[in-house]
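ligand=NDP
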Amino acid sequence: MSAAVIDGKQVAAQVLEEVGREVEQLKAAGVTPGLAVVLVGDDPASQVYTSNKERTARELGMHSVLYRLSATSTQAEVADLVRTLNRDPAIHGILVQSPLPKGLDMDAVVRLIDPLKDVDGFHPENVGRLWTGQDGLVPCTPAGVMRLLEAYGVDPKGKHAVVVGRSNIVGKPMAALLLARHATVTICHSRTPDLAETCRRADILVAAVGKLQMITGEYVKPGAVVIDVGINPVPGFKKRIRGDVDFDSAAEVAGLITPVPGGVGPMTIAMLMANAVKAARMQTGKS
Ligand code: NDP
């Protein structure tokens, strides 16, 4: 292996420490940042994600509430809860865990969230702000990737960044953030021909595909920075997860690489906490 390995756990711990200090400052100024996490239904993975988010916020000293709605909830019931939380002055951040049970419209729910409380950064107003260079709340996973790059001294300016994946939650905001930092950005997807060839031109390669170990060393330019957003189960192993990048072969070629687990994953929840504090600041005018 020639690549240096990015320690996402360590950078996430630093972010959480900073957020903890900011929570203390805000509390001293009379504001307790409040995060509401909404879980609809009983998807086991979503239960784990939401309780981790609620617990982390609580451990950082925030006012943290987990709302559990039954899988049979109606669109109107979910909407009512969001409207109530929008009005609640003790709540600065609202997160509705995806996916919602079948029959419920997530986009419609996201549109109802007050953009100032939209800690996932998925509301069209925040998406528009991101693409037009205005301050707002930015999706947590791509924000976490930017923080990792910064922590390891990688300046995207003038670099060619290739993002594989164009989802609204990872690929597109990732591309927007890299563009904002002056990278030349190529976005690839399932209809991109010659994917490996395009990826081999990347100084910074971000994989957000959802395909187990698809990006091998053949896709990597020597010395490139490789960021693996993927979280994929490994068939035959109950608890094992691996990324979209084939770590062993990619690490032979890359200069710097994230592992899975322990790379981008821990950053997502840390950046969510940072967004909750930012949301509290924006709503209360405390800087
Ligand atoms: P989506 O399924 O929404 O998007 C996947 C993207 O990959 C799509 O744009 C799709 O193209 C593209 N794609 C699929 N197959 C190929 C292929 N063979 N070649 C090129 N492109 C392809 O996934 P997400 O963006 O939500 O998530 C991506 C990965 O990141 C998943 O493994 C997910 O678990 C993980 N993830 C990790 C997080 C973390 O905290 N670390 C947070 C969120 C996600 P098209 O648009 O054409 O269909």
